[in-house]
Specification:
Elements: E1 15-20, E2 23-28, H1 41-54, H2 58-93, H3 99-110
Antiparallel strand pairs: 1-2
Helix pairs in contact: 1-2
Length: 122
């Protein structure tokens, strides 16, 4: 069953139709709030020109850029936290795999072989 076609109604929540790959998504901004960003004139003009080339508004372009940045930085922060957790676990237990063991495992994966990761040891 396909998703119903997204609709925007006058006086209802504001929405944008966004194409992601071959999928049409509806992004609603019902709970959005206004935020000001001070830009130098040159950057503002670059955004305006790029938005025009993309047939989008400068607002849409800036919103997309901010959303992509926040998503990327959240992933980076999660990676950092995971690394800190792993480092703390290693310092506590001493369990690890050697570089050679990890490289051998990764080589098998690159060759298309399904293989379990090496076992941690002292």
């Amino acid at each position: 069953m396909s998703d119903p076609e997204p609709k925007c109604y006058f006086g209802g929540p504001r929405c944008d139709l966004v194409t992601i790959g071959n999928t049409l998504k509806m992004a609603t901004t019902t709970n959005a709030s206004t935020t000001s960003v001070k830009l130098d004139p040159a950057t503002k003009e670059r955004i305006r020109q790029l938005a025009s080339a993309r047939r989008r508004s400068p607002h849409w372009l800036m919103r997309e850029a901010i959303e992509e940045y926040v998503e990327r930085e959240e992933k980076r922060e999660q990676f950092r936290r995971d690394a800190e957790t792993s480092w703390a676990h290693y310092r506590t237990t001493g369990l690890h795999v050697t570089r050679e063991e990890a490289d051998a495992w990764l080589s098998k994966l690159e060759a298309g072989k399904k293989t379990a990761p090496p076992k941690c040891h002292d």
